[in-house]
Amino acid sequence: MTSVLEQLLSVFWLRPETAIWRYLDIEAMKSFEFEGRSLDFGCGDGLFSFIRAGGRFSAEFDAFQKTEQLDRFYENADVYDAYDESFDPLVTMPASYQISVGFDHKANLLWKAAALGFYKETVQGDGNGPLPFGDDSFKSIFSNIVYWLDNPISVLTELRRILEPGGAICLMLPNDTLPEYSFYNSLYVETKDERWKWLELLDRGRLSDNIKQSKSDEDWRENFARAGLSVSHHSQHLPKTIIQTWDIGFRPMFPALMKMVDGVDREKMPGIKAEWLNALKMFATPLAAMGATNDERSAFHCYVLSK
């Protein structure tokens, strides 16, 4: 198992399915490099890009250091949208490079991202509207949030505007196979069978929102062309097994797990977490290996685009 997967499992130890997904994203974008002035569009708390850049944390740190609204978890509240000055990412190794700008719409997540010392600047704004950057501002842009936004074509057009000639945009986008891999979508939305309505609690708006923008490679390329972008690299990752593992995962028990962790004696926690991680590795390693295939049925595309 690579050190990247180990680090992701340590940081997301209560949500290991997320660690596997993020690891496979990193593998998919190996051909992309941040060069020149760079933008992480929708950076969130910055953990993904920081780890991808070689940054490392102490074993005591995790992505759940600051959470709120656990009592509203099943109302689709973003429990990670929380921050105060006690937040400390416990960085043991800085990233091998920096990204010029981290952009996101949530102030709390940007405060967390800024604490990493990884972004030269963080900018808060709405990705759905005109971006607060001039034409030809960036040589490299990464985003895995375009499909969450209201109008991906207008977003793509804006990203093209701020990309300098000869620059590159790396995007993660859902394939049209994703809907059939979602338990909520395939068992309830498509069938209207009320026996499966409870799957709304499992989905929490995650895959169901992604599904709205799921497109084939042909359709995404048409959208790129309309935005004035061309494809220089394309691969696919996250097959059905990985998506369905993530779809269930440890998510349903997250609020209870957080409360249990908070109740553990601080002196015992390092040993408990180490034992937990050793058990996770037995399952995460083969799952990650399964998910590395570049298959047209896989649920996500990775594109590198130019203008």
What order do the SSEs take from the amino end to the carboxyl end, as H and E?
HHEHEEEHEEHEHHHHHEHHHE
The number of strands is 9
Largest sheet report: 7 strands, mixed
| Share of β-strand residues | 15-25%
Mean pLDDT: 93
Structural class by helix and strand composition: alpha/beta
Keywords, separated by commas or semicolons:
307 residues, alpha/beta, seven-stranded mixed sheet, two-stranded antiparallel ribbon, globular
Nutshell version of this structure?
With 307 residues, the protein is an alpha/beta fold.
What do these coordinates show?
There is one protein chain. This protein is α/β, with parallel strands linked by helices. 39% of the residues lie in helices and 18% in strands. Strands 5-4-1-6-7-9-8 form a seven-stranded mixed β-sheet, with helices on both faces. β6 (138-143), α5 (152-162) and β7 (163-174) form a beta-alpha-beta unit. It is globular. It starts with a helix and ends with a strand.
Topology summary:
Layout: H1 3-11, H2 16-28, E1 38-41, H3 47-52, E2 56-57, E3 91-93, E4 99-104, H4 107-114, E5 119-124, E6 138-143, H5 152-162, E7 163-174, H6 178-181, H7 183-189, H8 199-203, H9 206-211, H10 217-226, E8 230-237, H11 240-248, H12 254-262, H13 269-290, E9 300-306
Parallel strand pairs: 1-4, 1-6, 4-5, 6-7
Antiparallel strand pairs: 2-3, 7-9, 8-9
